[in-house]
Amino acid sequence: NQLSGVVLEIQDKDGKAIESWTTDGTPHVIIGKLILGETYKLVEKEAPKGYKIADSITFVMQPDGTITVNAKPVSENKLTMVDSKLHFNVNKVELGNGKEVEGAHLVVIDKETGKTVDEWVSEKGKTHDFGPKLEAGKSYILRETVAPAGYKYATDIEFTVKNDGTIETNAKTTTDKDGNKVYLVEDDTTKATITKVDDL
């Protein structure tokens, strides 16, 4: 699918921008700006929400006017850059035993702006994926705002979405049945000791 809101740039061999634009869901045509025999790079400067920033594509304008990537001709001189979706899966579990906990209200906050970008209530048997609401290159805070009865509030978890879509955080992880990494938000149970005494 054609993506809108992607900031792209063509750079020459010295890294100088030749052309910059924001995608609008249609192919972008460049006429009369590229020099035959020169090497260029297609660079994604900003990805839309929910997507990783794609690897740059180096290409050559051949003397005959064709474009090659890794010495292979590009069909119809059309470069295609593919963005992969971000995935960040979270499960709410009990500290120490990994037992799923439901009824916790969780929010994801943009660390820079303080705005909430996602919120949900944990359910047993459900892993929450809020990847589509994140942006590559930004940092966030995962916070529990309501703890279920019998549980303490979890400590805030800070994480950063790198440009390649990987998540940098110190949160504990596990793997789901499909092999995806799942980050764990752990709640400890509340504890109280009651002693009955006489009035001596």
| Sequence of strands across the biggest β-sheet | 2-1-3-4-5-6
- How much of the sequence lies in strands comes to 35-45%
Helix-strand topology string: EEEEEEEEEEEEEEE
**Class by SSE composition:** mainly beta
Shape: elongated
> What percent of the residues sit in helical stretches (DSSP H or I)?
under 10%
Let me know the number of strands: 15
Largest beta sheet, briefly? 6 strands, antiparallel
Low-confidence stretches: none
Distance between the termini: 79 Å
Structure description:
The chain is mainly β and 200 residues long. It has strands spanning 4-11, 17-24, 39-46, 57-61, 67-69, 72-73, 89-94, 105-110, 116-121, 128-129, 139-146, 157-161, 167-169, 172-175, 181-187. A hairpin with a 5-residue loop joins strand 14 (172-175) and strand 15. The mean pLDDT is 85. It is built from no helices and 15 strands. The protein is 0% helix and 40% strand. The strands form three sheets. A six-stranded antiparallel beta sheet has the order 2-1-3-4-5-6, with no helix packed on it. It has a five-stranded antiparallel beta sheet with strand order 9-8-11-12-13, with no helix packed on it.
